[in-house]
Amino acid sequence: MNTSTHAVNRTQAWLESLRPRTLPLAFSAILVGSALASWQGYFDPVITLLALLTAGLLQILSNLANDYGDAVKGSDQPDRLGPLRGMQKGAITAPQMKRAIQLTVALICVSGLALVYVACRSMADVLGFLALGALSILAAITYTVGTRPYGYMGLGDVSVLIFFGWLSVLGSWYLQAHTLIAPVWLPATACGLLAAAVLNINNLRDIDSDRRNGKNTLAVRLGPVVARRYHVGLLAGALVCLAVFNLLWLHSLWGWLFLLASPLLARQARFVLRETEPAAMRPMLERTLKAALLVNLLFIIGLIISQQLR
What we know:
Largest sheet: none
Number of strands: 0
Helix content: over 70%
Number of helices: 13
């Protein structure tokens, strides 16, 4: 293998470990929070950009730590249905991955501190968001790393709801509005449920290999039949949250724009209920990710148009 080919392979291995396709889902939750802030007249573009940067880096940290933890524990075996990553292929060593994780943590600290400096108005807010930032870093790493990774205990879905839903949306909202109001919890929960649906498809795909390797995801704990029904509940729950938000607070026809994605979600729900083979879930991961992004994007557009027409 010549030097240029080796460099290309190394670059490809790092891109596979960074998983850039997962970034839009992290970004969309921040943008939902900012759209809610704009709806109430609090939008700040600088805070939004810093929040997007911090969320993106946290997602990258989670991806790198996930690859490291699964590779070290031997969970990602060649027989798994998901794609092989850099450490699995031997293209990235454990020390190299550790250094990448440390560098990402350092970048998160810089970005997060800048966000806190620009957005926080009181010492209580500063301390609160520093604590939340530290918790986010810890959660991103310990999903698969450590002696008792919570991703191996079926708690990944709860973590996704908290960090991709409540913390991302409510955090983005609060840093601009500096208050919490009841309505914003509904879109935040919807974002979290959609993100959990993406994770659940991943876990349904890998359910057999995860079970063999002692990775007790929620899908493994529930079993394939209940896990597929749970998936439908996640999709339906997200739509219900957005519908209740529009009925009780937005009161706009444009607020129903997210329903344009409902036929897509319905088709995916039928597919998940019908297909029993884990291998059938391979193409569904990207489709579920795109569907979740579409719902969030349509909700954001509807919210902004509703604001402009008030």
